[in-house]
Amino acid sequence: MNEIIDVDDLSDADSDIFEQQQLEEAIALSLSESREVIDVGDAESSTRQSSNTTTSNPTSFPSDFLKERARLEEARLQRRKRRFESVAVDAPQKASGSSDHSQQSVGQLAKRRKIELPLGDVPTPLQTSISKHENIEPFWDGTLRQTPSRFSNYKPKFSLKDIIGESSAVEWSIMTAMDIDFDWVATCFPISVPNILVSSPARSNGYTEATVKRLDTTSWFHCTPWMPPGHGVMHTKLCLYFRKDGCLRVAVNTANLLDYDWWGIENMSWVQDFPLLASSTQSPEAEASHGKAFRTTLIAHLKRMNVEAGMKAAVSSGVIRLPKCSIEAVLNRYDFSKVKIRLVASLPGTFTGQEMQTVGHTGLMRALRTIGARTPPGKDLSLEYQGSSIGRYTADWIQGFRISATGGNGYNSWLSMSAKAIKEQPYPSKSLMKILYPTLETVDAAGRHRGGSMFLSPSTWEAKNFPRQLFHDPKATSGSILMHTKMMLGLFVSKKNGVGPDTQAVSGIDGDVGGWCYVGSHNFSPSAWGTLSREKRKKRATGRSSKARRDMSDDESQDEDTPSINIRNFELGILFPFFQNELPSKADEVACWKRPVPPYNRSKPWVCLRLLDSMIQALTVSYPDASDSLASFA
Questions:
Q1: Do 516 and 627 sit in the same domain of this protein?
Q2: Which of 125, 180, 393, 542 could lock onto 192 through a cystine, CB 3.0 to 4.6 A?
Q3: Average pLDDT over residues 569-594
Q4: 281 and 157 housed in the same domain
Q5: What string of DSSP letters covers 3-72?
Q6: CA atoms of 260 and 377, how far apart (whole Å)
Q7: CB-CB contact of 521 with 235 (8 Å)
């Protein structure tokens, strides 16, 4: 049988892109007794579902997977049936002059990429019997927590219901993720509460138009953003809950809005509450720089994700009332002065000049400087990066990323290098660059059938000059569970050995900051963080002011031809510093993996694509009637 996905045909598209394609293809794997195909919204979940019994026997996987999928699908259908049996769905139709549209359950709405729903007047909302959730603790200073799992440790956790809090106190919300299971979200959040949901658009060979669709008789609207051809996915995982008491809760997650992401694998969420400004005359411009930057990044990201179109549709339908259908007008009402983190964003497109400082790893460069976390003179930077999807790496891309991760040290030297010299750069040592991705042994310990969330293609791993020597095998601090969390630790170390952070505070630049942490949706990939490029550079002109020559660097002047960064995905995460006197204990406490993390040595990585091939072969034997459909994915 041929490979499921010909990754070689994806050129420089990394795992973030073909991950979504795999999720769509996984629909064919979710065959229940009724032969019903699970809708797209459940596809990623279907590859991730698991039983409570771990296994180290690879040959038992297909049967275990099929039994578990049948059980979970039956439970899902029963859940949907119970929710809608007691609900009247004969909602009033739009006034005469408009065409009739058949009503559909929320479960059917996961087939969202093929359904056009009207944006008419608000029908009588469906009511659900969601029980009240008592965890309404305000998080005025912000907090970072892991999601619950079948394992427990001493740390407090965040379920989606914990983040939402008392759902009856929410006036309206915005929820975004690459993939959304509308059925499951409706068990956590009433469909009568207005909700703007944003997910990644279906892949196509050309432009993907921005869309807004009313979800049946609910008060929910589903949006997808516009994306140019050749770009990746909407990977941002962000929630905003506008409460009736005037408070705004913001959550930056690493989990999709899928049931399994919140219990079967481990993720993390950062949550903070923000009050309204003290008075209507108070200007948001008076905030501290962190608050202003937080607001600016949030507004730009939500606009690009097509959220305002969803707001306009909800307002025109009478679902919500806003004085202006502008995300800027809405967020300008809130006080972000207490925010202590920095948002780091990626948006699809090519950016030059000052725009480079707002997105991708060049945006990370600027953010590190603003929080005082630029790598000091005499120090080196040790990076540990945990993710769930591995990109196609080259030495020059990793070195370019590391320049940004230092806060821009060596940036102008990079600009002055020839293209040949850039391409000939070596990979960093494994003491300074650790890529965290589970080995086959680690996945087997958690249960091989639980590995559907980890993506690495065979051709990527086996490619010539791929940095296999940089890979390390992470073990979750919570127990034998696989981590979907995207987290990066950057620690300042002595240039002599690069073994660990110094115990003495660093004097001079940036004071006593000893490192930093990123948590969010970015995997360690060019699609997520962007790729630096430049046009042919002219010789530096003299006689100009340093201000006119300066672009990204504080140290040297820029030439007239500015570099650019090309990004494929929507991504969003948070950044915060570690202080020298907190290390290394603070890094150990925040990290979701056990430190120090061991290198691979002779271990083999977990390669999900090969597993999917064996799954299809097993399903073809078990369901011969579906062999033609399954063959289309091979």
A1: no
A2: 125
A3: 96
A4: yes
A5: -SS-GGGGTT--HHHHHHHHHHHGGGG-B-TT-PBPPGGGHHHHHH---SS----GGGHHHHHHHHHHHH
A6: 45
A7: yes
Domain total for the chain?
A: 3
- What tokens appear for 388 in the block? 């769930």
Q: What percent of the chain has pLDDT over 70?
A: 65
- Same structural domain for residues 174 and 118? yes
Pairing of strands 211-214, 170-176: unpaired
Contact 113, 27 (CB under 8 A): no
Looking at residue 207, its amino acid is Y
Structural domain includes residue 457: no
Question: In terms of domains, do 21 and 148 share one?
Answer: no
Secondary structure of residue 88 in the 3-state scheme: coil
Q: 221 — phi, psi (to 5°)?
A: -130, 135
Give the Cα separation of 616 and 209 in Å (integer): 33
Residues 156 and 208 in one domain: yes
**447 assigned to some structural domain:** no
Q: Write out pLDDT tens, residues 34-91.
A: 333 323 233 333 333 333 333 334 434 444 544 554 555 566 556 555 544 433 232 3
pLDDT tens figures, 108-162: 433 333 222 223 222 222 222 233 334 457 999 999 999 998 776 667 899 999 9
Matching residue, tokens 């962000």: 238
In a domain, 65, yes or no: yes
Residues 520 and 582 in one domain: yes
Q: Tell how far CA 537 is from the center of its chain.
A: 35
Q: Which has more confidence, 284 or 522? A: 522
Q: Which DSSP category does 594 fall into?
A: -
Residue 3 contacts by C-beta under 8 Å, 6 or more apart in sequence?
458, 609, 613
Sole residue written with tokens 């806060």: 407
Q: How far is residue 62 from each of residues 329, 591, 616, measured CA to CA in Å? A: 52, 33, 9
Comparing 327-341, 402-416, 476-490, 524-538, which segment has the lowest mean pLDDT?
524-538
Q: Are residues 180 and 275 in the same domain?
A: yes
Indicate whether 442 belongs to any domain: no
143-158 pLDDT tens trace: 999 999 877 666 789 9
Residue type, 358: T
For residue 150, what is the domain's CATH number? 3.30.870.10
Residues linked to residue 342 through DSSP beta bridges, in sequence order: 575
pLDDT value, residue 418: 87
Residues making up the chain, counted from first to last: 634
Q: 365 lies in which domain range?
A: 354-437+473-533+562-603
* 431-442: pLDDT as tens digits: 999 999 999 999
pLDDT tens per residue, range 212-266: 999 987 899 999 999 888 788 999 999 999 999 999 999 999 999 999 999 999 9
- Angle of the 395-405 helix axis to the 360-370 helix axis, nearest 10: 30
> Taking the CB of residue 631, how many other CB atoms lie within 10 A of it?
13
Q: What is the pLDDT of residues 298-338, one digit of tens each?
A: 999 999 999 999 999 999 999 999 989 999 999 999 999 99
* Phi and psi torsions of 293, nearest 5°: -65, -40
CATH classification of the domain holding 364: 3.30.870
Q: Are residues 170 and 49 in the same domain?
A: no
Give me 353's structure tokens.
């000049």
